[in-house]
Amino acid sequence: MNRIRSLRCRVCCVLGILGMIALAAGCGPAVDETRPITLNYSIFFPPSHIQSQTAVSWAEEIERRTEGRLVIRIFPGGTLTPADQVYEGVVRGISDIGMSCFAYTRGRFPLLEGLDLPLGYPDGMTATRIATEMARKYQPEEIADTKLLYIHAHGPGILASKRPVRATSDLQGLKVRATGLSARIVDSLGAVPVAMSQPETYEALQRGVVDATLCPIETLKGWNQGEVIQYVTDTSVIGYTTAMFVVMNRRAWNNLPPDIQQIVLEVSDEWVEKHGAAWDQADAEGLAFVNQLGREIITLSDEVNEELKVAVGGILEDYVVRAENNGLPGRRFLTDLQARVAESRE
After folding, report:
1. Beta bridge pairs of residue 97
2. What is the C-alpha to C-alpha distance for residues 282 and 55, in angstroms, rounded to an integer?
3. d(CA 319, CA 323)
4. What is the pLDDT of residue 33?
5. What is the pLDDT of residues 24-68, one digit of tens each?
6. Which residues lie below 8 Å from residue 222, measured CB to CB, with a gap of 6+?
7. Tell me: the pLDDT tens digits for 201-215?
8. CA 44 to each of CA 47, 49, 119: distance values in angstroms, whole numbers, following the listed order
9. C-alpha angle with apex 128: 124 to 134, nearest 5 degrees?
């Protein structure tokens, strides 16, 4: 009897080992491939903003093309991660996908912050195309901890203020909401930059924490900030942009089947154009909104425009020096950027 029991134990052990090997080799129970993959998408824009709506249509198109195999749940308005924590939230897996501004974490993206330089971007479509092209071309290490899907960027920034700005002297001491490199633009003009995200800006203007905001004109409608300013000064001669990433958690990306990855990339390429068009549409609507509110639009003289250009001239060279001191191709990156902006104007 003891021999029989011993033999049974050996057989069970062998069967158990074989079962473990089979499972390791993928010979276990079949995976239910009909269950959709669900990813969470953190967006800092409010749900009413055109860029949030464009992101929703991106997610819906991916779900349609994958025939429901990939479902993306949208969390707008910073409800999943605050605007300045979206990128790190993706890295850490708090969200699977995230959209926010590189500029909200100064110093975190030393090469790509060059995208925001005051290069005179003519419109949002141009800024969006160039920003995505440059990031894909250089593939900097600073974003290697996520999968970059695309970048979009707004049209040239303007100055919206509670009191008129008609000359460079009017800027002295003015408290201006600005982020990233736009804060350096404000500083170079003799004003005082105050860093904060867009969701914080309305109340800051309303309460007098800041006197003005340096922003694309779409912001005045998209974030309702036109309600709490009185003047809009056209500073597009030193037009900058704010580049906004759409990135995916590396593990989430790697876990997607190859055919779904390809669909995500294809849709993302198409949505570069859609986001760019949305920025230009939003700028037109922002202008119409402030006109409807009766805000004064100030056009600067050629003399004042030249003063603005001279005032911000050192920012470009300073970017190059800082980037190259960190072992980054700052000069080449800036030269490429300037060439692309110049080509877009031809």
Report:
1. 41, 248
2. 15
3. 6
4. 60
5. 333 333 335 668 999 999 999 999 888 999 999 999 999 999 999
6. 45, 49, 50, 51, 282, 286
7. 999 999 999 999 999
8. 9, 10, 26
9. 145
Burial of 331: CB neighbours in 10 Å, binned 0-12, 13-18, 19+: middle
Question: Which residue, 108, 109, 114, 110, is CA-closest to 131?
Answer: 114
For residue 14, what pLDDT is reported?
37
Give the C-alpha distances (Å, rounded to integers) separating 112 from 87, 165, 184, 312, 320. 14, 31, 16, 19, 12
CA distance 324 to 321: 5
Name which of 186, 180, 44 is nearest 107 in CA terms. Answer: 180
Contact 290, 283 (CB under 8 A): no
- Give pLDDT, residue 9: 42
Assess whether pLDDT exceeds 70 at residue 3: no
